[in-house]
Amino acid sequence: MIHIVFFSPYPELSNVIEQVFRERPDKDGLTYEIILDSFNNTLQQGCHGDVIISRGFTAGMLKGTSLPNAELKTSGYDVIAAVDRCLKEHPDTKKIAVVGAFNMVYGSESVSQVYKDVTIKSYFTEKEIYLKEIVKQAIEDGAQMIVGGCSTVTIAQEHRIPCQLIESGKEAIRTVVITRKERQKSNLAIQTGVFLLLAAFYTQLGGMPEEAKGYPTFLLAACAVVNASILFSDLRNLRGEEAVKKDPAAPAMIRRVILYIVVLGLYIFMIEKIRYVLSTLLFCVASLQIMRVKSWKMQVLLPLCLTISAYVVFSRFLMISLPVGTWIHFGF
């Protein structure tokens, strides 16, 4: 049984969320909990679910944690719908401010292309504690109406300025709440492939000198243990279905996993040829490139620190014989 926690950004959405869950064909394998999101949510409750779904500031905060989370996204259509309601209630409005979390309002100024005589400006912040200042700034800039999330609307009402809530529809909720069974099967296939590849690498150790087998054997054993734990977890999760965010980046992620497997294979092969230090250094650099680490400090310092520290631990403390290399020899 999979438990989903849904932080509802405003009270009226709770009924829509319940309807979506009732209509799901796999509803018997799911339990859900709807918690009304709060201003400056500290996540003191609702962090016990298999998946936590939220919007706006809470979604942005959850992305910075290790908690399993999915974002209820706000589309340009949602912003346009809110602006339309603004103009129907106040047709003389000429300046509208869209205020809220960066992941909700960024790019909303492009909506102004739909409205010839209306100026739409976005104001965003990453932290909800600064929201009152942002709303005040929008009003000082001459905004006649505020559009945003529930917290933004509440603050605008305190300033007695017309406001409209950006609402989320059923389709957005359906998109973010999907079954994980197919993704679990894909993960299972990948982990099985990695496990078999590790086993194949292990069979090649027979041709290495005895004094050079220590480190590759240790490396393969560690990878096998980690991969086996992930494989076991995926098998266990296949007992039911799990709701997760639909990840459009999954194909790219799979390509990176395959590339990493290839790099790992080259690393294991080259250890015997060019010695531990150089091969590990190159492996770390390649791994950071695959993970798309852009900081040049990380690309330089992390491989050096990892390589040197691992060399000292394995050769000096664990007394594991590292490959000496057959192509290139160093003086240590």
Quick synopsis:
With 332 residues, this protein is of the alpha/beta class.
Label the structural class.
alpha/beta
In which order are the strands of the major sheet placed?
Answer: 2-1-3-4
The main pleated sheet reads as: 4 strands, parallel
Number of helical regions: 12
Count of DSSP E strands?
A: 10
Low-confidence runs (pLDDT<50, min 5 residues)?
238-250
> What number is the mean pLDDT?
77
SSE string, helices as H and strands as E: EHEEHEHEHEHEHEHEHHEHHH
Portion in beta strands = 5-15%
The global form is elongated
Q: Give the C-alpha Rg.
A: 27 Å
Distance between the termini: 56 Å
**Helical amount among residues, as a percent range?**
40-55%
Explain what you see.
This protein has 12 helices and 10 strands. By secondary structure, it is an alpha/beta fold. Strand 3, helix 2 (56-62) and strand 4 (69-71) form a beta-alpha-beta unit. It is elongated and about 85 Å long. Residues 238-250 have low confidence and may be disordered.
